[in-house]
TrEMBL record:
Gene3D superfamilies: MetI-like. The chain crosses the membrane at residues 31-49, 103-123, 189-207, 227-249, 269-288, 370-391. Keywords: Amino-acid transport, Cell membrane, Membrane, Transmembrane, Transmembrane helix, Transport. It is found in: Cell inner membrane; Cell membrane. Belongs to the binding-protein-dependent transport system permease family. HisMQ subfamily. This is Amino acid ABC transporter permease. PROSITE patterns: ABC_TM1. The lineage of its organism: Bacteria, Pseudomonadati, Pseudomonadota, Alphaproteobacteria, Acetobacterales.
């Protein structure tokens, strides 16, 4: 048999049967059933829309999003942007969205770090360390998240007042008013230094791609770290130094019955972040442990045969391969952190759910308020999913 006849691309395909308008034709039945299902779904949505519109009209409840331009009169304890009660409901809801994103982003980073360390600790040869990590995972995962949030909030509220605040490190105070940390005053020089750092990251990435391309051509490796240190370290420091090297630390201090200066982490935010991080880290630890165990034992043996210590084997050989198993379920945990942050209303942290609930209670725009909450969480969840799917596709093995 010739190569041409053996190639499936040149194989003859069976002729397609013409579509007959008969119930005995399977394709006709499939089309009819799909049209009926889509029509039934559209009919249900139309009935819900008409029923809702009629009930709102009978009760003389206003509809639409015009209330977003009205003055909110809503006090918000903490916000990432400027806000006061004289601003609009739109501004208040924007503050709620940013507060939700703050908890989600910081929680994802901290839970990933802690969960990864716990997952590795569960596989440690140290019997005591492995058992402590295992006990933590089992206890944290078996307790409801809401109960943990209430526990941490009650614990923070039971701390002493500012005058008897815990002072573990100079400039750091922990009391029932929250956590006070040193900070520094942001000036123009810091902004330009940050821009220089971002440009350095981009330049390092481009140089790394160029170095790899050249190595593929001539086989000569080119170290990337000197360029990275120069662009991401020396360049921002040079810009900062050229603009006067301003650095004014803002150290918190006690004045009267409260602290002045520094950075304040409220008890509500601290309790929410602590609960979400510790709870989700237990699930991430099991995902990391499963991903490491999924790597073939031969990879460990081959790396150790080259003389690599166990720590280097884990970081250079095992974890990069385990990522292909870890990333898909890790995406679900990142989504869980974002959605579980809605429990903030139970401890008084003003996120999008809390502010939207207050808004709909004041305006009576219940449908619009719920729709805004759904839209915010849907947008955040889809963004996380798209990014993680892109990253998962990037690290996936490409079969030749």
């Amino acid at each position: 048999m010739s190569d041409v006849s053996a190639d499936p691309r040149f194989a003859r395909q069976a002729p397609r049967r013409p579509l007959r308008l008969s119930w005995s034709d399977e394709r006709v039945r499939n089309i009819v059933w799909q049209v009926l299902v889509v029509g039934a779904v559209l009919a249900v949505f139309y009935w819900l829309y008409r029923n809702t519109s009629y009930n709102l009209e009978v009760r003389r409840i206003a509809t639409g999003f015009g209330f977003l331009e009205r003055e909110a009169g809503l006090p918000i304890a903490e916000s990432l942007i400027e806000y006061d009660p004289s601003m609009t409901y739109f501004r208040a809801l924007l503050v709620g969205v940013l507060n939700t994103l703050k908890v989600a982003v910081v929680g994802i980073v901290l839970a990933t770090i802690l969960g990864t360390l716990l997952g590795i600790a569960r596989l440690s040869r140290n019997w005591l360390l492995a058992r402590i990590a295992g006990a933590y995972v089992e206890i944290v995962r078996d307790l409801p998240l809401l109960l943990q949030l209430l526990f941490w909030y009650a614990l923070l509220q039971a701390l002493p007042g500012p005058r008897q605040a815990l002072n573990p490190v100079e400039g750091v105070f922990l009391s029932n008013r929250g956590l006070k940390l040193p900070s520094f005053r942001w000036e123009d020089a810091h902004g330009w230094a940050l821009i220089a750092f971002v440009l350095g990251v981009v330049g390092t990435f481009l140089y790394r791609r160029w170095a790899r391309a050249r190595q593929m051509q001539d086989g000569q490796p080119r170290p990337v770290w000197p360029v990275g240190v120069a662009l991401m370290g020396a360049l921002p420091l040079a810009v900062w130094w050229a603009l006067g090297a301003p650095f004014q630390p803002d150290i918190p201090f006690l004045r009267g019955f409260n602290f002045q200066g520094g950075l304040t982490v409220s008890p509500e935010f601290f309790a929410l972040l602590l609960g979400l991080t510790l709870y989700t880290a237990g699930f991430i630890a099991e995902i990391v442990r499963a991903g490491i165990l999924a790597v073939n034992q031969g990879q460990w043996e081959a790396a150790q045969a080259l003389g690599l210590p166990r720590g280097r084997v884990m970081s250079l050989v095992v974890l990069p391969q385990a990522l292909r198993v870890i990333i898909p379920p890790m995406t679900s945990q990142f989504l869980n952190i974002t959605k579980n942050s809605s429990l903030a209303v139970a401890i008084g942290y003003q996120d999008i759910v809390s502010i939207a609930n207050t808004t709909l209670n004041q305006t009576g725009q219940a449908i619009e308020g719920i729709a805004i909450i759904m839209l915010v969480y849907l947008t955040i969840s889809l963004s996380i999913s798209l990014f993680m799917n892109w990253y998962n596709a990037r690290i996936a093995l490409v079969e030749r």
